[in-house]
Amino acid sequence: MSKVIRLGTRDSELALWQANTVKKQLQALGHKVKLVPVKSTGDLILDKPLYELGITGVFTKTLDVAMINGDIDIAVHSMKDVPTALPEGIVKAAVLKRGNYMDIMAFKDNEEFLGSREGVIATGSLRRQAQWLNRYPTHTVVDLRGNVNRRLEKLYENDWNGAIFAAAGLERIGLEPENTIGLTWMLPAPAQGAIMVVAMEDDEEIREACAQLNHEETDTCVTLEREFLRELEGGCSAPIGALSYINKENIVTLKGVLLNVDGSKKLEAELTAPLGKHQNLGIDCAKSILARGGKRLMTELANAGLEVNVFSTKKLTPPQQLLLNISVNADSDDFIKINPNRISPIILKQPHKNVVFTSKNAVEAVLASRDVAELDFENIYCVGRKTRRLIKNTFGKVTHYENNAKDLANHLVEFIDGTEVTYFHGNLSLEELPSILEENNIEVNAVEAYRTKLSGKAIPKSAKGIMFFSPSNVESYLKENSTDRVAYCIGETTAKAAREHFKEVKVAKIPTVESVIELVNADYRD
């Protein structure tokens, strides 16, 4: 080719290294190449707004604009920074052989903080932040911006334990610190470590020249990773990692991960296929994650800045959060705190013919005070499926259970063996059960097993629905919040307390958190 290839580059040290690498490879093939420094999009004039051309990449749009304007022929990018949808008219011309794809942590003094509850790690990547917090949930992650050189300087200027970098970036400019640890457990960004050359689609001569640089194995792997990313519809705002590789037997593997920002929710997938039958791995891997809660998780990430429309007065677990419909932007917190009492050994050493539990908290308090092997409980009666499950797993038997205290009391009145019960309860437990029993000449020996502390707080005014799981939840909520909302209740006892204050009260079919979530989903359909 007699034409001089104009290679656009930004002026950072890493960008220049990448540009010069491509320049040397093209020159080795007999092409003439000239580096063209490109400053900023503000100095360039376009006939169309950037969004009309699909130019979205923070680190790539300057060069994209220059190429569309005809100022350069090709551009070189860290492939992980390139949006999965290229601007109109621009295409992938080559992918160079992949470098080190791993993330590494640079640390200042020693790595002992990894075994400690306290630790401060710096990174500007949500993906790295989420995976770090998933592994070290008590650590603190601080933001880290700037080019590679400046980020390393900040590590030593600040009181941080370490900072996370792409290994390839540090290696390419010879800046890898002495104290580093390879984070082999952390999935990299899709296409991390790969260099991508882009050109104009209609410039066939330039594309043919660049095609000679393409490394087929790298191209195959990073294409799968980017298809995984595109199928999840994630970008810089979503913590997504992916890695594909081909082994000696020509088996292609793709690993993918999706997390929320604080790392408390994590969905993974891993698929394999023979080379030649691997084309759908990226899409299939993403669909696997989407089908197992990924769709909900992506919506949560997208809705992070939106108003809360449902609030739960009990902290929802990550799996429970994923059960909520996409249109539910929920927040949750524990509105009551449970503190078990130390139950007198004199009480627990005695044999008890009939024992009553109306909550898991009471069972756990008894077990915290004495080993189950030392307890002599002949008949055990309880309220709630989870309480029954805990008793069966620990004591091995449940004489009878009901879904609410009133029904259990009525059963005892009719079927109890004897005229006396030992009732383990909390300080805020309702009087309904002991009242019914005593009215029917059944003696109740009440033992306060735990104390409930109301710890509610003011919730966002945007929340139109409140999830309640006990009368104490309702009482705690009322201390700082209004009642012009829908109350979704776990059972009839909770609903009775809510009806005294709320106009609209809905009751779950069965007394479980999941059933309350079904109530909410019925009102907030996707």
Main attributes of the structure:
526 residues; alpha/beta; D-Maltodextrin-Binding Protein, domain 2; Double Stranded RNA Binding Domain; six-stranded mixed beta sheet; five-stranded mixed beta sheet; 25% strand
What would you call the shape?
A: elongated
Give the averaged pLDDT, no decimals: 90
Beta fraction: 15-25%
The first-level CATH class name of the largest domain = Alpha Beta
Percent helix among the residues? 25-40%
Distance between the termini: 56 Å
Number of helices: 18
Q: Which radius of gyration do the C-alpha atoms yield?
A: 31 Å
Main β-sheet description: 6 strands, mixed
Number of domains: 5
Q: What is the count of β-strands?
A: 24
Strand order of the largest sheet: 16-21-20-17-18-19
CATH domain topology of the largest domain: D-Maltodextrin-Binding Protein, domain 2
Which CATH architecture of the largest domain would you pick? 3-Layer(aba) Sandwich
By CATH, the superfamily of the largest domain comes out as Periplasmic binding protein-like II
Determine the structural class based on helices, strands and strand pairing.
alpha/beta
Query: Low-confidence runs (pLDDT<50, min 5 residues)?
Result: 40-59
Q: Would you write up a description of this structure?
A:
The protein has 526 residues and is α/β, with parallel strands linked by helices. It has five domains: 1-96 and 192-214, D-Maltodextrin-Binding Protein, domain 2; 103-182, D-Maltodextrin-Binding Protein, domain 2, CATH 3.40.190; 215-305, Double Stranded RNA Binding Domain (2-Layer Sandwich); 306-335 and 455-524, Rossmann fold (3-Layer(aba) Sandwich), CATH 3.40.50.10090; 338-454, Rossmann fold (3-Layer(aba) Sandwich). Helix content is 34%, strand content 25%. The protein contains 18 helices and 24 strands. The strands form five sheets. A six-stranded mixed sheet has the order 16-21-20-17-18-19. Strands 2-1-3-10-4 form a five-stranded mixed sheet, sandwiched between helices. A hairpin with a 6-residue loop joins β12 and β13. α14 runs parallel beside α15 and α16 packs parallel to α17 (492-499). The longest helix has 22 residues, at 281-302. The chain is elongated, with a radius of gyration of 31 Å. The two termini are 56 Å apart. 41% of the residues are buried.
